[in-house]
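Blinded run. Sample ID left blank on purpose so nobody reads anything into the name before looking at the predicted structure. Input follows.
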Amino acid sequence: MKVKIGDEVIQSNIKLRVRLDYRGETRPAKFFFGGKNTEKVAEEIREQKVAQLRNVPVQGIKIEDIDNTLDVYTVADEINGEEVAYAPVILTVWADTIEDVIRFIMREEFRKVEILEPEQMLVTRQDVERFLFKMNQELHTYRLLWEKKINAR
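Blinded prediction complete.
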């Protein structure tokens, strides 16, 4: 991303804070043993995803901090009326380009993004074209994953 300082334009990375809320739903009980509650499921999913974020490098992204200390919260699911828990994670990341961030914001878990640095950005026509192209690719991948999930049921 290019940053304009006075009349000078320099290349700069982007620092962002991204919030992801991982969903946990009650699992049905097996045999005589009780299933896990929604909060426990959400916490387990969050821990798995955080471990994956820490251990699997992402091209164009440097993770500076992962905050998984936020409390799990529950809400009623509007579709089936059951209680669903969410376990939030706040990532502070450095991205080489704005299109590198798309893989985080095109997730079902995405809730919020805040650009921390730079204060101002110069976005060219090519930057917007690459951004839109990358969004289309991510949307296509996301749709294929959902189709596989639905067909597996």
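Unblinding after everyone has recorded impressions. The CA atoms of residues 20 and 151 lie 26 Å apart.
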